[in-house]
């Protein structure tokens, strides 16, 4: 997936061309509401010290962006479905981890080890099968800009062309306003 940096306040149907961010299609595209959240990844180091401290720091440093991005109906459904499946796989992994502890305590090391292996394998498998390359991924939010990884190279190209064209037309429009005043 390739990256694009967009102004955070331009995630809408007025500032972006109608091209699906997943497939690159330009037909049957609708702008859908999206929400992104990002926090610095170095916060994960604090998990080693204390999970509560890490959660508090992550919450304090989290930056959020809301807007609309263009999707085909199928691509949006697959992206949302992947998010739901991944959340369920995390819940399953926690259950398998706890189940593995009880299996080890009951001296059933083989099943306990299998449960712990599955608690790692389930989210990884779901990620590769249902999440990866199915939708936009936020890489960073800073200084009024959002860096997104998009599966579609065509969408990135069209977004960049649209942004460049918009920037080129701004000075001429500003000049026309000055001349008319």
What does this protein look like?
Helix content is 52%, strand content 21%. The chain has 181 residues and is α+β, with helices and mostly antiparallel strands. It has one domain (2-161). The strands form 2 sheets. It has a 3-stranded antiparallel sheet, with helices on one face. A two-stranded antiparallel sheet has the order 2-3. The longest helix is centred in the middle third of the chain and has 33 residues, at 73-105. The chain is elongated, with a radius of gyration of 22 Å. The termini are far apart.
Output the keywords:
181 residues, alpha+beta, 3-stranded antiparallel β-sheet, two-stranded antiparallel sheet, 4 helices, 5 strands, 21% strand, elongated
Order of helices and strands: EEHEHHEEH
Overall mean pLDDT: 89
User: Which stretches are low in confidence, meaning pLDDT under 50 for 5 or more residues running?
Assistant: 172-181
The percent of residues in helical segments reads 40-55%
| Rg value | 22 Å
Q: What oligomerization state is this entry in?
A: single chain
Broad structural category: alpha+beta
Distance between the termini: 46 Å
Transmembrane segments: 42-62, 83-105, 111-131
Keywords: Membrane, Transmembrane, Transmembrane helix
Summarize, please.
The chain has 181 residues and is an alpha+beta fold. It contains four helices and five strands, in the order E-E-H-E-H-H-E-E-H. It has one domain.
